[in-house]
Design a protein that fits this description.
Layout lengths: L4 H35 L10 E7 L4 H18 L3 E7 L4 H6 L7 E5 L5 E6 L4 H10 L1
């Protein structure tokens, strides 16, 4: 029995979505397993603090108007329990590439044990970042 055109298109679309989701999971799994190697390239990391690695560019308007103020609010709330490293992806393209940055803003939340907790592609509000820290 032949599949009708609508069903065939739906199956193809579902396959594309599932393969994209699989690639996303594989990317995050690989990145989580490489986090310790990536941290070595960042310089001094404050022990016992959460680390927020924030990739931006000088021309990124959402970075300046939304993401940076959200990170500043989060820093004010958490004080010394949060270290923020802001990285200009245009100045350090090799580093951005090693971290798998595809767009800006991108933030990586790393726990005090050096484990990658969350990757946020796009703007992430202070409240969401705070939830990510507290939920684990």
């Amino acid at each position: 029995m032949l599949l009708n055109d609508t069903l065939l298109r739906a199956l193809i679309a579902a396959g594309i979505v599932l393969s994209g989701f699989g690639l996303y999971l594989a990317y995050n799994w690989t990145l989580k397993n490489r986090a310790s190697n990536l941290l070595a390239n960042l310089g001094p990391i404050r022990p016992g603090a959460f680390l927020l690695v924030y990739f931006t560019t000088p021309t990124c308007v959402p970075c300046k108007t939304i993401q940076r103020p959200a990170i500043q609010r989060l820093s004010e709330m958490l004080g010394n329990t949060l270290q923020v490293l802001e990285i200009d992806a245009t100045q350090q393209p090799d580093l951005a590439n090693r971290w798998g940055v595809l767009s800006v803003p991108t933030t990586f939340l790393i726990d005090p044990h050096g484990r990658l907790r969350h990757v946020n592609h796009g703007v992430t509000r202070a409240e969401q970042l705070l939830l990510q820290i507290h939920k684990g």
